[in-house]
């Protein structure tokens, strides 16, 4: 089988042929947009202190934009996105994670960075589905590196959990994290794992959404990005090319947040000039304290607390703050029992975490 290329160019014409379950195309990928990556550590949103794919903890590979430091958007010829839904029905893409220490872990949340969405249906049930898979050998098709016969490769294996994420909730503002929370941590028993976004339902509703990725070459040949076609997984490098001859070899803006009950790594890095602690105690059954740290003097700092429906419950204006560590005390009399998200806003940036209030 020849090396195959699937993808994405808004400005390039080409025919796509799908025969007997095999991907065969002559299209190529083009970069539509290049931006600097958000700063080094994502807005960790719950009790975890490690974010697979972003935090440079040494526990997982690859690291998103770890080589180029850039974030990229790939469009798809005929409509849609490479890492999203598109005209040719490649509606599920997955980012794999190398579990370096073969740790037993729990995926509590998934963070996504979307590049865009286009709504047609206006249906409140239009959604994508976020899924967690274990990975195993010989579960995806890949090239042998010389343009010859395709070979088997590690790929997504057993579906462990899934969670709906509705089209109306997708935030395409660059740097804003879309947070998908699983009701209980998804147990991964010492294997590599993958997180996918399945956009099939959007296609049926004629809605479109796509995820960002990093630069060509940022995956450093790991081949842990995947696309699903007619029920089978293909390594993205096997399906897509930027120029028709080279591999895309990049990572998708999908990040798994790891539950600290399984593993945890305290990151020393700032994200957009901020660090934000988990409130203590959590769950909160009395007053709780939130600590944050600023990399430099900030003219306006604000803490907002939202309920799970996005309603603003508490706003605390901290005003001007010097560089260094600060703390905020929250009284439980201000919050009913339930789950909340608290966001620290400074200099137009935001970090968010989750907390639980009990009574």
Task: Please give a structural write-up.
With 359 residues, the chain is mainly beta. It folds into 2 domains: 16-258, no CATH class; 274-357, Immunoglobulin-like (Sandwich), CATH 2.60.40.4070. It is 3% helix and 48% strand. It is built from 2 helices and 25 strands. It has helices at 200-205, 236-239; strands spanning 16-19, 22-25, 31-36, 50-52, 60-61, 70-74, 92-99, 104-112, 114-118, 127-142, 151-166, 178-189, 193-198, 208-211, 213-214, 225-229, 232-235, 254-258, 274-276, 288-294, 298-307, 312-321, 324-330, 338-346, 349-357. Strands 5, 7, 10, 11, 13, 16 and 17 form a 7-stranded antiparallel beta sheet that branches. Strands 4-18-8-12 form a 4-stranded antiparallel beta sheet, with no helix packed on it. A hairpin with a 2-residue loop joins strand 24 and strand 25. The chain is globular. It starts with 15 loop residues before the first strand and ends with a strand.
What is this structure's SSE topology?
Layout: E1 16-19, E2 22-25, E3 31-36, E4 50-52, E5 60-61, E6 70-74, E7 92-99, E8 104-112, E9 114-118, E10 127-142, E11 151-166, E12 178-189, E13 193-198, H1 200-205, E14 208-211, E15 213-214, E16 225-229, E17 232-235, H2 236-239, E18 254-258, E19 274-276, E20 288-294, E21 298-307, E22 312-321, E23 324-330, E24 338-346, E25 349-357
Antiparallel strand pairs: 1-2, 3-6, 4-18, 5-7, 6-15, 7-13, 7-16, 8-12, 8-18, 9-14, 10-11, 10-13, 16-17, 19-20, 20-23, 21-22, 21-24, 24-25
The assigned structural class equals mainly beta
The number of distinct helices, counting runs of at least 4 residues, comes to: 2
Taking all residues together, what is the mean pLDDT?
78
- The N- to C-terminal Cα distance equals 63 Å
Any low-confidence stretches, pLDDT <50, length ≥5? 1-31, 40-49, 260-267
Q: Give the C-alpha Rg.
A: 21 Å
Oligomer: single chain
Q: Tell how many strands the DSSP assignment holds.
A: 25
In N-to-C order, the SSE pattern is EEEEEEEEEEEEEHEEEEHEEEEEEEE
The number of distinct structural domains comes to 2
Biggest sheet statistics? 7 strands, antiparallel
Range of strand content: over 45%
Anisotropy-based shape: globular
Q: How much helical structure, as a percent, in the residues?
A: under 10%
């Amino acid at each position: 089988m020849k090396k195959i290329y699937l993808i994405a160019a808004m400005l390039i014409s080409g025919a796509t042929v799908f025969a007997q379950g095999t991907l065969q195309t002559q299209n190529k990928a083009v970069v539509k947009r290049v931006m600097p990556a958000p700063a080094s550590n994502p807005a960790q949103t719950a009790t975890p202190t490690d974010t697979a794919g972003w935090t440079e903890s040494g526990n997982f590979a690859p690291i998103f934009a770890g080589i180029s430091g850039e974030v990229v958007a790939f469009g798809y010829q005929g409509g849609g996105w490479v890492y999203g839904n598109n005209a040719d029905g490649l509606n599920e893409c997955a980012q794999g994670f190398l579990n370096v220490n073969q740790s037993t872990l729990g995926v509590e949340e998934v963070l996504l960075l979307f590049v865009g969405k286009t709504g047609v249906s206006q249906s409140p049930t239009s959604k994508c589905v976020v899924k967690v898979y274990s990975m195993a050998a010989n579960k995806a098709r890949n090239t042998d590196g010389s343009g010859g016969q395709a070979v088997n490769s590690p790929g997504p294996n057993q579906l462990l959990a899934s969670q709906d994420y509705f089209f109306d909730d997708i935030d395409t503002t660059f740097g804003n994290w879309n947070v998908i929370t699983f009701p209980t941590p998804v147990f991964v028993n010492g294997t590599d794992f993958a997180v996918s976004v399945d956009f099939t339902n959007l296609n049926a509703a004629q809605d479109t959404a796509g995820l960002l990725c990093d630069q060509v070459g940022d995956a450093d040949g790991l081949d842990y990005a995947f696309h699903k076609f007619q029920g089978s997984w293909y390594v993205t490098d096997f399906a897509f090319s930027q120029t028709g001859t080279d591999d895309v070899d990049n990572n998708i803006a999908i990040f798994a947040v790891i539950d600290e009950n399984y593993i945890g790594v305290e990151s020393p890095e700032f994200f957009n000039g901020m660090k934000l602690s988990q409130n203590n105690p959590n769950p909160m059954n009395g007053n709780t304290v939130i600590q944050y740290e600023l990399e430099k003097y900030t003219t306006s700092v604000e803490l907002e607390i939202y309920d799970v429906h996005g309603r603003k419950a508490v706003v605390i204006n901290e005003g001007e703050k010097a560089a260094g560590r600060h703390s905020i005390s929250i009284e439980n009399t201000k919050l009913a029992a339930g789950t909340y998200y608290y966001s620290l806003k400074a200099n137009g940036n935001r970090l968010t975490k989750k907390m639980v209030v009990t009574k």
